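Appendix B. One record, verbatim.
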Amino acid sequence: MRVIITAGGTGGHIYPALAIVDKIKEMEPNSEFIYVGTHNRMEKDIVPKRGVKYIPIEIYGLSTSPKLMGRNIKNVFLIRKAYKKCLKLIKEFKPDVVVGVGGYVTYPVIRAAHKCGVKSFIHEQNSIFGKANKSLLKMVDCVGVSFKDSIKQINHKNVVLTGNPVGEDAIKKKKINKTQFGLSKNKKAVLIFNGSLGSKVINDKLKDYLLNASSYSYEILYITGTPYYEEFKKNKFPKNVFLEPYVDNLSGLMKDIDLIVCRAGASSISEITALGLPAILIPSPYVANNHQYYNALSIVNENAGEMILENDLTTSILAKKIDSVINSSSRQKEIKDNLKKLSIDDSATIIYNEIKKMLK
């Protein structure tokens, strides 16, 4: 299979795209890929390291901020330029399919595929559709969604509940023992993280909670985010608090953890669901369309997890919420049973099968 795949901006788009690449490689080892991404975001470094040919295009997201109106005008011309570049790429590479996995970079790529009559598939990781995916709906042959709540938002003849492919990827990851980070083998553990880069707001809010951790019956592994680690570790935290700036293969570590506290990004929720882990979700209010809140709501409405809004986050509220889950075997079982009902363990496989069906 010859595939052009495009996604960019954040790990929430990039890693599902790479999971799809890995699945196609697994099923059809002789497949050829080109990944189209931005010239200045994290995918430009991540993708080439995975041995996938990378084509950068200069493009920016449109903004409603008056300060960025000049960039918006420039971006109109950049979109046209990117579209022409993608047309040329498609005509030369002759892909069987073009796959878009979110982010504004996908727009000119999918639009060019539509113009050239090449089959296309897009995937939405969040409960609420992103602007790029929503604008592309009339141009694509098939749409994959991660949440069943997303299906009713759109009008398309071929919408498939696929789940998020990073969930299937998480299941395959090798388990990492928490003892590698200093935690005790026989004590309950809470893992707290705030996205790939961390969050200064959450770090500030949770500093007091961590300083008072000596009274908690469990241990805490707190991931600060690399930019905040050196400053954050200057605090004198109790012995049951362990700090890390960043953990590679986080889903492998999650397999040896009792409770997760994290943002409600699509990838995190997918991993939590796939691994059946009780979680307390703190959705970021700073994202487009408040989509993390709706991601978390999809879990809470199924009684498969807990949520605390950032404005409500205090030491006492978090401590009580954690106690209500980690010290209750019945609550843990309830959450795990409900997560099992929501989990789609073969998401990347479903996406591969839908692409094959579409090509036939």
